[in-house]
Amino acid sequence: MYRLLRGRLTFKVYVLLGIIAIIICGYVIPQYKIYSIAPVTSRSLVHTHSPRHLSKLVTVVFRQFEDFENDIAESVQSFVAAYPNIPVLVLCERKQYPPFQFSATNVTLRNVKIISLEFKLDINPVDLDPLSYVFTEYILFVPDASRVSRRVFQQMAVAATTYPTQAIAVGIGNTRVVCQQLNWAYADWTLHYSKDSSKKLCDSLQGQHALMIKTSMLRNIPKPFALPFPETLYLQTAIRNIKVQVLEGKFAAGRSILKTPASKQKASKRLRDYRTSLYKELGVKAVVKEDGRVQWYGCKRETQRCFPPVQRTPSYVLAGRNTPPCCLRNIRRTVVHVLRALLQAGARCWLETTSLLGAVMRGDLLPWVEYAEIGIHASDLTRVSWLQRGGPDNDGFVWERATKGHYYRVAYSATNRIYVLILPFTSRNGTMWPADWVLAYQRDFPERHLHPLAQIKFVGHQAPAPNDARAFLDLKLGPNAVERSDRIGAKLLYP
Predict the structure, then answer these.
(1) What is the pLDDT of residue 102?
(2) Which of 174, 244, 279, 429 could form a disulfide with 202 if both were Cys (CB 3.0 to 4.6 A apart)?
């Protein structure tokens, strides 16, 4: 300082300019420096989502992993290293074994909680609710084998606050994320998935990805953490019209896992079991994939049908649903088989009331029927050998006569009792009379409706039918039967 004060004026000026330059470089230029973070709309957002504030804004949750082989320890360490104060939850179905091999110290893991969701008699109900451990505005769901990117994480936080009614997602590594639209047809027991090439707003996503969503949204969902995850979550958010926006950035992939065929097979079986259990609980009988393929989760020939014995009104009608699609499929198979057998035997037969109504309205079964109906001349019963001897035929369909009343039915199998009714009519003085059996809507009708028989499209085939189908139905079900059925549906028969 003494030399500076006694120095020349020029030297003093240089020193002063140097001090000014240091001040400018230290305080002014950094305000315009381009950091490797996501674009933001204002300086306030940059300040709000600094690492210190992200730890108070977001809770990281790991839900997708296999207990027998995973990369959870390293994935958690990735977040802890980048954000030491961020809360992290690892949700396990039961006490984790083998235990996670964390390499960090206890101090570093002070905000990491491993929560077992296993039911115990002495457990506090609150402890089984993962949301009771969440005190932040947002939750970030991260799949196994992931590594955080500060830039992408901050980008997700900015997008989440910018679009508070949406969830925000980013892919993991090189995984291709597929945007899907989802339609849950409750009445038809069917899930429809379709691919959305725009990738802007999705109902659900396929492929490894991280998902940021508001905690308040999850509190309004019955089972936000149910397996399979996140498939179950997307089913619940889709019906609440919560869309998912996919960002361009990605988190890095972690250590490769499930490399052996045995581990892959074990993981695939678990996923199928979780999905089957979920669909059984929701009543999903068919899933239509993006390419049009149908995956069936309902009844088969080897299982019982999907609804209990009917007492006046089917249970599914009381629940506001149609016949399960697997049951409709099995009725179609049975009615095609029965019609073929009757016609090959030379029996005069035709579609009766509800089946004829379905053929007129849609060329198919009515969506709410519990069986198909076929009328037959009583005098032609002896022509059909299976009606005489009964029992299972060569294709596994079971022919049997009713214990009360002179009618027959053919079941899909000995186990699956979905069936087709064969109703004999006797001709007397130009009138067809029911042959000693009674259904609420069945009655006699003029024989002229069967001379000649017509052909009508039914379940993908041509089937014999009365020659004036509408007049025939009006006689059986009352005036304007077709129009009333179109308007009131199942109430036509089940008021």
Answers:
(1) 81
(2) 244
3-state helix, strand, coil in the chain (%, to 5): 35, 25, 40
**What is the identity of the amino acid at 44?**
S
Global model pTM greater than 0.70: yes
Give the span between the Cα atoms of 56 and 61, in whole angstroms.
Answer: 14
Q: Which residues of the chain have pLDDT under 70?
A: 1-12, 15, 24-52, 104-106, 199, 405, 437-440
Q: Parallel, antiparallel, or unpaired: how do β-strands 88-92 and 112-116 relate?
A: parallel
Q: What is the pLDDT of residue 419?
A: 96
pLDDT at 123: 86
Do 267 and 67 contact (CB within 8 A), yes or no? no
- Angle, in degrees to the nearest 10, between helices 469-477 and 481-488: 70
Q: At 483, which helix (H) or strand (E)? A: helix 481-488
Instruction: Answer for the pair 294, 288: CB distance below 8 angstroms, yes or no.
Output: yes
Q: What's the confidence (pLDDT) of residue 26?
A: 60
Round to whole Å and give the CA distance between 115 and 100. Answer: 12
DSSP per-residue letters across 405-441: SS-EEEES-SS---EEEEEEEEEETTEEEE-S---TT
How many whole angstroms separate alpha carbon 296 and alpha carbon 292? 13
132 token code pair = 């009771």
The helix or strand, by DSSP H or E, that contains position 377, with its residue range, turns out to be: strand 371-377
Q: Are strands 349-351 and 371-377 parallel, antiparallel or unpaired?
A: antiparallel
Output the pLDDT for position 35.
34
User: What confidence score (pLDDT) does residue 265 get?
Assistant: 95
The answer to whether residues 137 and 164 touch, using CB atoms and an 8 Å cutoff, is no
* CA 479 centroid distance within chain: 41
pLDDT at site 25: 65
Concatenated DSSP letters of 48-107? HTSHHHHHHHEEEEE----SSS--HHHHHHHHHHH-TT--EEEEESSS-SSPP---S-TT
Name the pairing type of β-strands 419-428 and 431-434: antiparallel
Helix (H) or strand (E) holding 374: strand 371-377
Dist CA 33 CA 50 (whole Å):
16
Extract long-range pairs of 378-387: CB within 8 Å, 24+ residues apart. Answer: 378/406, 378/424, 378/425, 378/426, 378/435, 379/426, 379/427, 380/345, 380/346, 380/347, 380/348, 380/349, 381/347, 381/424, 383/345, 383/346, 383/347, 384/341, 384/342, 384/345, 384/347, 385/345, 386/341, 387/422
Residues 6+ apart with CB under 8 A from 215: 59, 131, 134, 136, 137, 138, 139
Q: Is the peptide bond before 308 cis (omega within 30 degrees of 0)?
A: no
Distance from C-alpha of 250 to C-alpha of 148, rounded to nearest angstrom: 9
Compute the C-alpha angle 170/51/40, nearest 5°. Answer: 60
Which pLDDT value is given to residue 346?
Answer: 95
Minimal CA–CA distance to 100: which of 122, 127, 72? 72
Q: How far is CA 442 from CA 373, 437, 463, 473, in A?
A: 11, 9, 20, 10
- The pLDDT of residue 103 is 73
